[in-house]
Amino acid sequence: MRTNSLGDPELHFWLTRSVAKVMGINLSEAMAQGRISPQDYASMVTACRQCSHVELCQIWLGRQKSLTRATPDGCSNAKALQALAFAH
Hints:
The protein has one domain. It is built from 5 helices and no strands. The chain has helices at residues 9-22, 27-32, 38-50, 54-63, 78-87. Helix 1 (9-22) crosses helix 3 and helix 1 (9-22) packs parallel to helix 4. It starts with 8 loop residues before the first helix and ends with a helix.
C-alpha cells in the first residue's frame, strides 16, 4: 500500500540496499554490470519512499539470519529485486 507522502530519502536508500543485500544482491555491482541503470536504482528508492510498510520492513530485516530470495510482505520493489536475485 502506498501513501501520498514520501519518506526520508536516506532511510529508504538504506532500506532498499539492505533488503537487496539480504537477498544476495549488490545494487552498486548490478549497476556497474549494466543489470540496472542509475534511473532504475533511483526509482527503487522512490518506490520505497512511497511505501507504508516501513516498520514491517525494518522488523523483517532485523529477523533475517541468512540470505533469502524473498522480500518483506508488501515490498514495493519485490518484482525488481526478485528479478535481480534470480538473474545471477
